[in-house]
């Protein structure tokens, strides 16, 4: 029994094919200014959280998505915020950041 011959596809529209290849490397990240970046005071005694859960979750999502270490993640998020024109502080590699990453 012989194997079936694989179908060979020919590209006829090279300009559309090249444009599709360029779009494949496109990356779009949105930061909504209405999203709370700083945490609300808890009203309890002790140290208060600085960053909201949404801010930490955004950083950890980028960390897992790109497989970055924590320090590289903070640098990457800082550059994304700078490109977006937002002057938000970036969660640093601290105790709470490590705790959320586990």
H/E element sequence: HHHH
Q: What general outline do the C-alpha atoms trace?
A: elongated
Uncertain parts: none
- N- to C-terminal distance: 53 Å
The helix content is: 40-55%
Number of strands: 0
The assigned structural class equals mainly alpha
Q: Treating each run of at least 4 consecutive H or I residues as one helix, how many helices?
A: 4
pLDDT averaged residue by residue:
83
Largest sheet: none
Q: Cα-atom Rg, whole angstroms?
A: 22 Å
The proportion of strand residues reads under 5%
How would you sum up this structure, described in words?
The protein is mainly α and 102 residues long. The chain has a domain at 49-102. Helices cover 46% and strands 0% of the residues. The chain is built from 4 helices and no strands. It has helices at 14-24, 53-66, 70-84, 95-101. Helix 2 packs across helix 3 (70-84). The chain is elongated and about 75 Å long. The mean pLDDT is 83. Residues 23-91 form the Transposase DDE domain. This is Transposase DDE domain-containing protein. It comes from Jannaschia seosinensis.
């Amino acid at each position: 029994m012989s194997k079936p011959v694989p179908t060979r596809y020919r590209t006829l529209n090279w300009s559309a094919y090249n444009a599709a290849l360029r779009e494949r490397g496109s990356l779009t990240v949105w930061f909504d200014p209405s999203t709370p970046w700083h945490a609300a005071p808890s009203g309890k005694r002790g140290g208060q959280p600085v960053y909201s859960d949404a801010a930490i979750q955004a950083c950890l999502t980028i960390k897992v998505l790109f497989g970055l270490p924590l320090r590289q993640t903070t640098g990457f998020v800082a550059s994304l915020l700078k490109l977006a024109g937002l002057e938000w502080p970036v969660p640093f590699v601290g105790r709470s950041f490590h705790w959320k990453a586990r």
